[in-house]
Amino acid sequence: MAGEVFSNLITSVNPKVMNSGSRGGCKIDRIILHHNATTNKDVAMNTWLVGGAAGTSAHYEITPTEIIGCVGEQYAAWHAGGTGPADPPKISNPNYRSIGIENVNSTGAPSWSLDPRTITNCARLVADICKRYGIPCDRQHVLGHNEVTATACPGGMNVNEVVRLAQTYMANSGASNPKIVKSKYSQYSTASIQDNGKYTKAPAGLGVQAHMSGKGWRKWVGSGELAGSTGKSTTLEAVIVTINGDLKAVEGAIHVASKGWISCAGTFGTTGQKLQIEAIKLKLAKKYDQGKTDIVYRVHQSSIGWSAWVKNGQQAGITGKTKGIEAIQVKLIDRK
Ligand SMILES: [Zn+2]
Fold first, then answer.
1. How many C-alpha atoms does 176 have within 13 Å on its Cβ side?
2. Which of 202, 205, 243, 311 has a CA-to-CA distance to 189 between 20 and 30 Å?
3. CA 209 remoteness from chain centre
4. What is the model's pTM?
């Protein structure tokens, strides 16, 4: 993808790199509406930055006068995943299949009101997204956050009103083309945030970076080096695998207990959702796989130990035992 996909309606793009990931092959068929639970849009958006404690994000931020692009629509943002096993989402794969729209409040608790202009901007955006993706503009496909997981979000927003308004915009305007803007993702592909809050470049050749539960993103490691840790009961929530910083170099899938196998490219896993990876499959993308190189890898699971070395899309890790991967080693080996 040459750039990030946003609605033509955006008034600006927030240049900061926010949490996002692969949609894992899911088609976009839902729009989920949120309120910021703050009257300060910057406070809201700053919680979505890569490396932040919350691990959340959204595609758009709406104010009375702005529609701000935050995470490109082609990526999943983390806005409606629930808070764990006690709060299972009411629809499958909510983040992977939806576009999340956050709206700034005009008042705080307990009413958490929204300015009528914010509602109007939100409805215009909903109409545009529905048109572009062919999503029916109705209450089955446009949902409040609390219709997906247990939450007080979207506060004082009347989702029925947003949908009603959006339907009038649907009727009165033609389909728009999306706006493609220079990608923040390419920055993300070669730079990932470390614990000290600074971006570092992916190394030349193979780069592997682990996101450890409770610890965040760790240092990049290279071919054959250990990403993660063993014997510390700290599991991996996500792993980034790059070649010369290219996030599209390695594809495959991860197995997550509550979700099964999820296809991935570049970024394997999620952050901020407390989902541990039980098993992983890695293979080189077409342009790197010219029959000359194997991608070889193994994983460490607590009380199971190291898996065998496997290669080129084979499964590493044992599923069904609620044992997350604690560490991974990946290497590229030239075939003789
Ligand atoms: Zn929400």
1. 20
2. 311
3. 16
4. 0.62
